[in-house]
Amino acid sequence: MGASGIKIWKNLGLHVKDQNGKLVKVDDPRLDPIFETAASLEVPVYMHISDPVAFFDPIDQFNERWEELNERPDRSFFGPQFPPFQEVIEQFANRIRRHKKTVFVGCHVAGYAENLAWVSALLDECPHLYIDISGRIGELGRQPYTARKFFLKYSNRII
């Protein structure tokens, strides 16, 4: 029967290091054969690239996810050992742009539910990208009118 898809977890770009101890970026060209093979086999690639933007900020009284991160500091990506959120999300966009024949599903609103304008632009540019909305109801719920317009516009691309 075989695999019906591939899932790339957020450890790529945040934790995985190469044999030289360098962080492997989401758009690292050494990984291109994986995405080219997925295209040739017509299997989708699900990419869970990052967590909410607040997870990349200091765990302090100004962080909207303070309570969650205080209880689970292992979910934090703040510090010199991690790249900034914007760098990781742009690597993801580069990966999607590079493989136009590969079907991608950007998990959790393509990793950037806080910025539907950014996700919209990527969806417009990349017709081979789909998204899911799991785990991001909080981020979507605080922008109800924008989210509604987004859902209507991309209803055939949301899982």
TrEMBL record:
It comes from marine sediment metagenome. InterPro entries: Amidohydro-rel, Metal_Hydrolase. Signal peptide: none annotated. One of its GO terms (molecular function) is hydrolase activity. Residues 26-159 form the Amidohydrolase-related domain. This is Amidohydrolase-related domain-containing protein.
